[in-house]
């Protein structure tokens, strides 16, 4: 089977995890937590990083620290992983969906502006599949209206806009380190920010609301969203090969581009000129393909030993967020005709050629 994603753990991961086991520091204290937070903040060009137990809690932690709650609205793209909207719901606030741009699959800034109401407290642009959202336009609109910008960069570690890395824009950025992401800790996440007060507030809420200076004095109803030292040990080892792995992912995308660009039915991933896209999942759309045909394509490829996955279902089609009468035409088209291809460091050139042959063959018949 050629898997769609697979973690690559060939560096110091085992050495560092063994250090946790040998030292007995296996819980959420230990040197790897602080080392990983420092190294990750530096890698993003941010002042602070707060490690969490997954990317969903990272998103929730920012919203909770900002005091977002019932009656508030948070604008999110309708095409994203469901965690982006769930984090808003955890606060009792309302996610307000907007459609995406066809080339990047990311939030359309003009539709964000049109969705603003007196209740809008925050906006969460998502860097889908590794292409950063239009943070320049979104930040300018948000600033005019006094809206907090929280970037969801769970799929875009290392991506850049005008030479600056994601994690350094907006008020805060949330990351995931799930096993299929560009950097992994098994399960894990982080928030980066340049705002010292917000960073302290998130540290307090992450640790059950315990005062950072006074042990067992709880000032708030907080959460246990802490990362373990073991997870941070894996993350630190992953960061040591960060640039290398981004470069390898670029090569994989180049090979896909070369082998698929001749197929007129396929729209391949694009990059805006000011952007460095990172290739989390190489995702194509097939012109004229219906959702049923796409799902059949996934089954056919699986029978040839190739694991692929559909582009996210637009959130307004899913039971928790159902809006049967709403129309988000771009997300609906991308969600029906899009398919993500295997993208990970374990792929050989042969594997990629096999995927491309199978895909082209299936589309010809
Ligand atoms: C993976 C992901 C998350 C959440 O990450 P978990 O670590 O699985 O909780 C959030 N948003 C997006 C866009 C993601 O892809």
UniProtKB/TrEMBL annotation:
Q: Which GO terms describe its molecular function?
A: pyridoxal phosphate binding; transaminase activity
Sorted alphabetically, which Gene3D superfamilies does this protein's record hold?
A: Aspartate Aminotransferase, domain 1 (3.90.1150.10), Type I PLP-dependent aspartate aminotransferase-like (Major domain) (3.40.640.10)
In-chain residues carrying the UniProt-annotated modification N6-(pyridoxal phosphate)lysine: 181
What InterPro entries does the entry give? DegT/StrS_aminotransferase, PyrdxlP-dep_Trfase, PyrdxlP-dep_Trfase_major, PyrdxlP-dep_Trfase_small
Query: Where does the record locate the signal sequence feature?
Result: none
Cofactor(s) recorded for this entry are: pyridoxal 5'-phosphate
Active site per the UniProt annotation: 181 (proton acceptor)
Q: Which UniProt keywords apply?
A: Aminotransferase, Pyridoxal phosphate, Transferase
- Which SUPFAM superfamilies does the entry mention? PLP-dependent transferases
* One GO-annotated biological process of the protein: polysaccharide biosynthetic process
Query: Can you tell me which family this protein belongs to?
Result: Belongs to the DegT/DnrJ/EryC1 family.
Entry protein name: DegT/DnrJ/EryC1/StrS family aminotransferase
């Amino acid at each position: 089977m050629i898997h769609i994603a697979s973690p690559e753990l060939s560096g110091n991961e085992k050495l560092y995890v063994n250090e946790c086991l040998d030292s007995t520091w296996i819980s959420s204290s230990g040197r790897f937590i602080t080392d990983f937070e420092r190294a990750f903040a530096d890698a993003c060009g941010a002042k602070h990083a707060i490690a969490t137990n997954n990317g969903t809690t990272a998103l929730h932690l920012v919203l909770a620290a900002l005091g977002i709650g019932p009656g508030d609205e948070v604008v999110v793209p309708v095409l994203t992983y469901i965690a982006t909207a769930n984090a808003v719901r955890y606060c009792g606030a309302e996610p307000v969906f907007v459609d995406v741009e066809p080339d990047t699959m990311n939030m359309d800034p003009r539709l964000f502006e049109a969705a603003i109401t007196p209740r809008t407290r925050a906006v969460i642009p998502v860097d889908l599949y590794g292409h950063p959202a239009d943070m320049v336009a979104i930040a300018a609109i948000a600033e005019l209206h006094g809206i907090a910008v929280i970037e969801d960069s769970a799929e875009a570690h290392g991506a850049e806009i005008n030479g600056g890395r994601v994690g350094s824009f907006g008020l805060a950025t949330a990351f995931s380190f799930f096993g299929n992401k560009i950097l992994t800790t098994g399960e894990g996440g982080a928030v980066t920010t340049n705002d010292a007060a917000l960073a302290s507030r998130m540290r307090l809420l992450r640790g059950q609301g315990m005062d950072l200076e006074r042990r067992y004095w709880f000032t708030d109803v907080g959460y246990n969203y802490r990362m373990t030292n073991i997870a941070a040990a894996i993350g630190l080892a992953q960061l040591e090969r960060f640039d290398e792995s981004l470069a390898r992912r670029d090569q994989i995308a180049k090979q896909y581009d070369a082998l698929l660009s001749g197929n007129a039915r396929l729209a391949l991933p694009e990059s805006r000129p000011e952007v460095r896209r990172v290739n989390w999942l190489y995702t194509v759309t097939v012109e004229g393909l219906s959702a049923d045909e796409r799902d059949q394509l996934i089954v056919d490829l699986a029978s040839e030993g190739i694991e692929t996955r559909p582009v996210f279902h637009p959130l307004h089609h899913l039971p928790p967020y159902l809006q049967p009468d709403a129309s988000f035409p771009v997300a609906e088209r991308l969600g029906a005709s899009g398919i993500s291809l295997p993208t990970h460091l374990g792929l050989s050139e042969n594997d990629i050629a096999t995927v491309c042959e199978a895909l082209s063959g299936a589309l010809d018949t």
